[in-house]
Amino acid sequence: MSERKKLRAGLIGLGAMGRNHARILSGLDGVELVGIVDPAGDTTGTLRAPVVPELGELLALGLDYAVVACPTALHEQVGLDLAANGVCALIEKPLAQSVESAVRLVEAFESRGLVAGVGHIERYNPALQNLRTRLEAGELGEVYQVVTRRQGPFPHRIADVGVVMDLATHDIDLTSWVTGQDYTSVSARTVSRSGRLHEDMVAVVGQLADGTMVNHLVNWLSPLKERSTVITGDRGCFVADTLTADLTFYANGAIDTEWEALRAFRGVAEGDMVRYAIPKREPLLVEHERFRDAVEGKQSDIVTLRQGLRTVQVAAATLESASAGVTVSIAPSGAAPELALP
């Protein structure tokens, strides 16, 4: 049996996320990291691949695919250059800074038949993977509400987008993916308290196509780091902590009570609590394995550019809602968002 030919991979960007990509690519089975682009060079002297200042120098090394981890504002130009040179790409989230840029990236890669994906890493979190499987199996019954909380200290590395495009896109993507439902409307409020151009806190109320209510609270203003997803349905609620990859189920109570005051209550009662034992593989490694397999032509579950575009559309609608002070309806099939009266 012949030895597996290694894919030649490149990396664009050596920021905090880029260095994690470099670590994974350096040891990924079936892949050789042949070069990295970063104007600052290798500041640590620990990387195994050459670091070049320009994308053209990286392309000259010959690539099968590249990971784009540069600032969001550069995603469109870098992605278009990769597509023009026939190079597949895994582009960090969000796909682009605007809906228009995201559309151009989708068209560039699809028109050339190139494999391309978006790095929405939460899809590969063990707690959310397990949660999605359980929802698909009907363990929660009808889903009523999805609530996410994502907060923590201000990341000084982020300068080109606000908290909606940077952090809330995680919650938008994971909510659609876990439930299998598109957003149909959002209403949002944002504030900026850190003195920067972009918003650093957002509160969102949304609705999915099946009527499920959605709430997202996201900020860069808290010393408490929190990553919580709570899904409530007619059989109880799931709580996923994506920091620890823990998944807990709180069942609705099925035991009658003799306490008259409680018996008159017609809502739900507290039942059993189960914390699931889940194998915990690193989400970034799983993401890279899935994308490598897709580039090799295997059937693989990656976040497509069209899915990444949809997330950018919902994020753009969120910013539009906050700016105009109205609910924004989100049309299906990539159509432009429309304003709806409150």
Overview of this protein structure:
The chain is α/β, with parallel strands linked by helices. It folds into 2 domains: 7-120 and 284-302, NAD(P)-binding Rossmann-like Domain (Rossmann fold, 3-Layer(aba) Sandwich); 123-281 and 312-329, Dihydrodipicolinate Reductase, domain 2 (2-Layer Sandwich), CATH 3.30.360.10. Helices cover 31% and strands 27% of the residues. The chain has 9 helices and 16 strands. The strands form 2 sheets. Strands 14-13-12-11-7-10-9-8-15-16 form a 10-stranded mixed beta sheet. A 6-stranded parallel beta sheet has the order 3-2-1-4-5-6, sandwiched between helices. A hairpin with an 8-residue loop joins strand 15 (327-329) and strand 16 (338-340). Helix 3 packs parallel to helix 4 (99-111) and helix 6 (163-179) packs across helix 9 (305-324). The longest helix is centred in the last third of the chain and has 20 residues, at 305-324. It is globular. The model has no long low-confidence stretch (mean pLDDT 91).
Lateral arrangement of strands in the main beta sheet: 14-13-12-11-7-10-9-8-15-16
CATH class division of the largest domain? Alpha Beta
The computed structural class is alpha/beta
Using the CA coordinates, give the radius of gyration. Answer: 22 Å
What composes the largest sheet?
A: 10 strands, mixed
Give the CATH H-level superfamily of the largest domain: Dihydrodipicolinate Reductase, domain 2
Helix content: 25-40%
Strand percentage lies at 25-35%
Distance between the termini: 65 Å
Give the overall average pLDDT: 91
Low-confidence spans: none
Number of strands: 16
Which shape, going by the Cα principal axes? globular
Q: Count up the helices.
A: 9
GO molecular function: nucleotide binding
Domain GFO/IDH/MocA-like oxidoreductase: 129-238
InterPro entries: Gfo/Idh/MocA-like_OxRdtase_N, Gfo/Idh/MocA_Oxidoreductases, GFO_IDH_MocA-like_dom, NAD(P)-bd_dom_sf
Domain Gfo/Idh/MocA-like oxidoreductase N-terminal: 8-120
